[in-house]
Amino acid sequence: MSPAVFVLVVASVLLVITNLPRWDRKASYKDADHKGVVVYWRPGCTYCMKLRTRLRFTRLRYSEVNIWGDPEAAAFVRSVADGNETVPTVTVAGKAMVNPSKGRLLEAVRTHAPHLTPGAGKAAGERD
């Protein structure tokens, strides 16, 4: 790989990383922002991996709660998923969705929490 290509690749990766959303990976049910977006997940869940990966490129701020590490979070998920620990389960301003698509989740944010929409309240060209 030529030095110019290497520099371009590194610059591209840094650009992507600096524009990824900031989220609280260590959130618990108790500490999560229930007025915002909370993604309930568990390790090894391919549906969770898919949604979480897609969300990382939206610039949406959200909390992630591992239901296997938080019994209170698991109980919450069961309460909204017909007694099952179906993940991903996501809440937007307290409204729960079980296994939503990225599009459905972003629509819920626009409807129930428009202030969380990436870029909301910013002047044209202004960044975080």
Explain this structure:
This protein is α/β, with parallel strands linked by helices and 128 residues long. The protein has helices at 3-18, 46-56, 71-80, 102-112; strands at residues 23-24, 37-41, 62-66, 89-92, 95-98. Strand 2, helix 2 and strand 3 form a beta-alpha-beta unit. The termini are far apart.
Task: Please summarize what this structure is.
It contains four helices and five strands; from the N terminus they run H-E-E-H-E-H-E-E-H. It has helices spanning 3-18, 46-56, 71-80, 102-112; strands at residues 23-24, 37-41, 62-66, 89-92, 95-98.
Strand content: 15-25%
- How many helices does DSSP assign? 4
H and E string: HEEHEHEEH
Strands ordered across the widest β-sheet = 1-3-2-4-5
Mean pLDDT: 84
What is the share of helical residues? 25-40%
Runs with pLDDT <50, length 5+?
122-128
Radius of gyration: 17 Å
User: Structural class of the secondary elements?
Assistant: alpha/beta
Number of strands: 5
Largest beta-sheet characterization = 5 strands, mixed
User: What characteristic shape results from the CA principal axes?
Assistant: globular
Instruction: State the end-to-end distance.
Output: 33 Å
